Amino acid sequence: MAKYTTNIPMAEFDENGLAIVEGWAEVYLCHAQTHEFLGKSYDRVPRGFSVVADAYLDAPELPKSDDIAICRTPDGKSWMHIPDYRGKSVYHTKTREKIAVDYIGELKPEHTLLAPQTPFDNWNETLWVTDNAALKSHHIQQAEQQKLSLQQQADIVIKPLQDAVDLDMATAAEKSSLTTWRKYRVLLNRVDCATAPDIQWPEQPE
Question: pLDDT band for position 5 (50/70/90)?
């Protein structure tokens, strides 16, 4: 028997996974809760014992895509490939909330990779469908608010100009400006908010 050796004593196992020869074993580790593959390591196994918990002697087949995770099967007998959407954005089918996936496996039933196009989209189990009536009502409400705001701005400008004219104190420029703003207010008042969002707003005077 040689005095020295550079060989690493390797364990040998029976059909039950128990060491019949003690030594080192190449093992493949998985997470205790998620059972996701963590990497390769070495385990010193005494005769009559098996490898440490959550470690296995068979190597997994590495996936070719980053969208695949390696996990141990529930029965612990083999490795399997499952979808991995972690880090991707999904949308909640009830709230339309954008969420970053933090779990392994198929997407939850309430999650979809499809993004809603409007705040008035509803999920029909396959895709987003826009509630056009609600969207139209929203556009009209926004147009009405904008029209009111523009009318108030015009009123603020017109009032002191009208005062100057009524008191015969207006300059030629003020008279011209008053006429321009009053015409603008007439055109603004004629805007039909029911045509929103396809509204051609009159150009506001300088």
Answer: confident
The model's pTM = 0.70
The per-residue pLDDT for range 121-172, each reduced to its tens digit, is 999 999 999 999 999 999 999 999 999 999 999 999 999 999 999 999 999 9
Q: What is the DSSP string of 5-59?
A: --PPPBPEE-TTS-EEE-EEEEEEEE-TTT-BEEEEEEEEE-TT--PPTTEESSP
Q: Residue 125 burial (CB < 10 Å; 0-12/13-18/19+)?
A: exposed
Q: Which residues of 46-60 are buried (b: 16+ CB within 10 A; e: fewer)?
A: eeeebbeebbbeeeb
Q: Phi-psi bin for 35: left (phi > 0), alpha (psi -120 to 50), beta?
A: left
Task: Return the domain boundaries, the chain.
Answer: 12-83, 89-130, 132-195
What is the pLDDT, as a whole number, of residue 206? 85
